[in-house]
Amino acid sequence: MSAGGSRHSIARLLLLLLPCCRGAPAPPLMDTLLASSRLVDSAPPGSPAEAALLSHLADIARIAAAHQPILQHPYFSAVHLRAARFTSDLLRAYPALDEHNFDSWAQRATGFLAAYARGTRPVLQGGVRVEVPLPAFGGLPLLRRVLMAQLAAGWLVGLGRRLSERAAEAAEGLVRLLYDIHRESVVQRGVLEYLHISKSGGTSWHEAAGRNGCVHPDTLGKHVRGFGDEVRWVDQQVYRNLSRGSHSIL
């Protein structure tokens, strides 16, 4: 860079810093992120687009309130039921967010997430009791969607598209916890099993897994024989007999 270009860059940097030097506070990060969202930018206050966006956000809460967890393994079921009950209780207690209830909402949600992030559950493995981190049982995707939908809807209406410094700090902490739980749930997944359909990108998936350090068996298609998910070829005669030329098998 030339000396002249360097001076111009420094001058521009000083101009950007001048408002801070004059005492004008920068807007909270969460406020900036919400305001710069493309969804929000295309939905000005009072517009049909804003009404549609709020309707979609309300649908997330409505579906979550009616959600019934699928009972799986008892270890997973207990964790999922607890999260589902908390989600339902939170929606009943805070159907809409405003400046009067935001702090208590954030405190309640953050408390649950913090306890979940550091919590463990005992599991018996080969006769040995093992304490497994709760995120290993799931990353709370439903609760994550509900909390973010409540935050977005509250920011749009109840909070007047503005977060106080205190509210922004609470929201940032909540989002950080959600991310940490999601990330830890992925890290804790010891095995990934999937259905490999020929000519649908399975080889690329294998290569990506290998480059990311995933352990895989040296078998055709890198399938785990113990899972019984090895390659199966369709018997053409059986296929024709079942489909009768219609190319549809139920």
Beta content? under 5%
Number of domains: 2
Our count of helices gives 10
Assembly type: single chain
* Order of the strands making up the biggest sheet: 1-2
Give the termini separation: 67 Å
Order of helices and strands: HHHHHHEEHHHH
DSSP, total strands: 2
Class based on secondary structure composition and strand pairing: mainly alpha
Q: Could you walk me through the main structural features you see in this protein, from its secondary elements to its overall organization?
A:
Residues 1-23 form the signal peptide. Keywords: Signal. With 250 residues, this protein is mainly alpha-helical. It has 2 domains: 27-187, no CATH class; 202-243, no CATH class. The protein has 10 helices and 2 strands. It has helices at 3-21, 29-35, 38-41, 48-66, 74-93, 102-118, 141-158, 165-187, 202-211, 236-243; strands spanning 120-125, 128-133. Strands 1-2 form a two-stranded antiparallel sheet. Strand 1 and strand 2 form a beta hairpin. Helix 4 crosses helix 5, helix 4 (48-66) packs antiparallel against helix 7 (141-158) and helix 7 (141-158) runs antiparallel to helix 8. It is globular and about 65 Å long. Mean pLDDT is 79; it is low at 1-24.
